[in-house]
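$ ./design --mode recover --in tokens.txt
reading tokens...
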């Protein structure tokens, strides 16, 4: 027999199967009838069927009188796809259990279902559902309202305040690799600080973001490709170079294929790359411009110089740290940040922390 939390956590795990459905949220769905799971699905990418629709298709006629578990309130408007609420009603589902409400224009599904005789329950694993969709929540049309606060916890009021101040900015996650002394510079003769297992984890993290970004110093030192390798991916993230004084060589690997944005103070023409001009090179203004270009999340790599600038401007939402031969929680650019040890990859320790919550 499955508990409600087990089924919601299963929906969350299904949602994670989508690498990056941007600009849509991650959503997974499970349908239960007579104690058995009869349908599952997850939303893969924008424009493709939603999780509820895929789960209903798998369940077929067996969905009648079943229970549907989904981590985000089913949508209730026509967009690229029809509303999920109407499909749920047509299928004859008797109960819908929802992890968290949708406060965008697509919301209202729970109320609609309840008015049409479906039993609706809200707030199962609410915190975990929010953590799953932090990128999407940062710029959702409106965040969790006061009426929903009892469903979650006392942090929500602070989350709402931070969220409102952060509208129109991409979600930025900083990733750094450190040696045992906290340096981001590999020892002489070595290109990498961390081992192969940690590098594979970085690839899995990269594919969750719209863009991978570095400062020009990383381009000059490492000449990276800034791509996802060794994993199936339908579309490579956009590559972004922060290069105020145009020091990026035209032979750089990152410029040899399309999908790169070079941010500089002065305009420049580069084959197969886009130039974004920011004359005063104000990072917040740059991020707003990138957001308008459709970049809603950035995986910020590179060295300490870029990291310090973004931290100083309070533009980092999340942090991923890999440290070789770690001894306790490392300081980041001289700061103690809310990091927690997640797991070990051989001699490397992976730390993670949220600087902002939405």
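writing sequence...
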């Amino acid at each position: 027999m499955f508990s409600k939390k087990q089924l919601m956590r299963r929906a969350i795990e299904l949602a994670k199967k989508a690498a990056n459905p941007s600009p849509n949220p991650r959503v997974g769905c499970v349908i239960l009838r007579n104690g058995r799971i009869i349908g599952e699905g997850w939303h893969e990418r924008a424009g493709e069927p939603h999780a509820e629709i895929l789960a209903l298709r798998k369940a077929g006629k067996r969905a009648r009188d079943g229970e549907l578990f989904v981590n985000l309130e089913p949508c209730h408007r026509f967009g690229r796809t029809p509303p999920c609420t109407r499909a749920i009603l047509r299928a004859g589902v008797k109960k819908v259990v929802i992890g968290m409400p949708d406060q965008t224009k697509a919301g209202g599904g729970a109320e609609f279902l309840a008015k049409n005789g479906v039993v609706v329950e809200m707030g199962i694993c609410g915190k975990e559902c929010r953590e799953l969709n932090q990128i999407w929540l940062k710029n959702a049309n409106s965040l969790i309202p006061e009426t929903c606060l009892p469903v979650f916890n006392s942090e929500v009021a602070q989350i709402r305040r931070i969220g409102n101040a952060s509208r129109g900015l991409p979600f930025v996650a900083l990733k750094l690799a450190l040696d045992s002394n906290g340096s981001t510079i590999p020892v002489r003769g070595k290109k990498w600080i961390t081992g192969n297992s940690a590098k594979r984890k970085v690839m899995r993290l990269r594919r969750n973001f719209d863009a991978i970004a570095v400062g020009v110093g990383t381009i000059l030192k490492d000449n990276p490709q800034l791509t996802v390798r060794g994993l199936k991916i339908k579309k490579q993230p956009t590559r972004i170079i922060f290069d105020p004084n145009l020091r990026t060589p035209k032979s750089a690997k990152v410029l040899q294929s399309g999908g790169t944005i070079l941010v500089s103070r002065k305009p420049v023409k580069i084959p197969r790359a886009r130039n974004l001009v920011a004359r005063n090179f104000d990072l917040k203004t740059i991020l707003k411009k990138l957001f308008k270009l459709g970049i809603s999340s950035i995986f910020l790599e590179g060295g300490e110089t870029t990291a310090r600038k973004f931290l100083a401007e309070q533009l980092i939402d999340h942090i991923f740290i890999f440290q070789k031969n770690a001894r306790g929680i490392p300081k980041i650019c001289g700061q103690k940040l809310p990091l927690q040890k997640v797991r070990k990859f051989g001699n490397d320790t992976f730390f993670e922390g949220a600087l902002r919550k939405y």
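exit 0
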